[in-house]
Structure formats: structure tokens, C-alpha cells
Amino acid sequence: QVHILESGGGLVQAGESLRLSCTVSGLTINDLAMGWFRQAPGKGREGVSLIDYNGGNIAYGDSVKGRFTISRDNAKKTLYLQMNSLQPADTGMYYCAVDRYGGVWSDHFRRWSRADFAYWGQGTQVTVSS
Fold first, then answer.
1. Is the N or the C terminus of the chain less surrounded, counting Cβ atoms within 10 Å?
2. Residues 6+ away with beta carbon under 8 Å from 50
3. Do residues 98 and 29 touch, judged by C-beta distance below 8 A?
4. Average pLDDT over the chain, rounded to whole?
């Protein structure tokens, strides 16, 4: 059984930083893309960042480019998201997810854009006050 556990969320002030972690069990992730998504109250789920199986390809949502950094450690089966210069607009539930197949970058990107990943965590709340 696959378990995905996010951690690291919290309440911070604008301009501060947080580092999210996501640990996966029950699944071999070495050849799978992984991503971070977020959902603000009353809004749909949006892709925050995407990383392919070895970190060779990375994508960010336009609103977080230059402020967030995604990374992964396959040996630890862990995904990270370093979030700097946080803004109130970054408030939401942050989810970690694993893609359903291996494959080429364009396939991962398309599924990430649609939030069409196979395995999801329960989320960790990030709240940024002004």
C-alpha cells in the first residue's frame, strides 16, 4: 500500500521561508516524476512544481518561479520544496504527488498541468500572514 506523508507546513509571516518534505513508502519512485500542488480555499488544485525521476527536468508554476526550489532524494524516497519570500497568495493546502507512469518529460508535464497524478498525500497547510 502506498503512503505519502507531507510535513513542514505552518503559519509564517510574509517574506519568511518554509521547507516542505514528502516521504513515500510502498512504492519505488526511482523512475517516476513527482510534484507539488496546492489548493487555496474556494479554488482548484494547481501545480506548484514538478521534477522528473532524477532531477534533470524541473518545472515551476509562474507564480512561484524564482522563489521556490524543488528537489528529491531517491535514496530517502523524499521530495522537498524550499519556499522563500512567501506571500499571502501562497496560502493553501500543499500536496505531494507521484506520477502514474515513467516516460518522457512532456507526458509528466501534461499530467502535472492537469493534476492527473496517481498517488497523493493528505496535504500540509501553509498559511502566510501579511
1. N
2. 33, 34, 35, 36, 57, 58, 59, 60, 70, 108, 109, 112
3. yes
4. 96
pLDDT in tens, 22-57: 999 999 999 999 999 999 989 999 999 999 999 999
DSSP secondary structure of 48-115: EEEE-TTSS-EEE-TTTTTTEEEEEETTTTEEEEEE-S--GGG-EEEEEEE-SS---HHHHHHHHHTT
| Three-state SS at 26 | coil
Phi, psi (rounded to 5 degrees) for 112: -65, -45
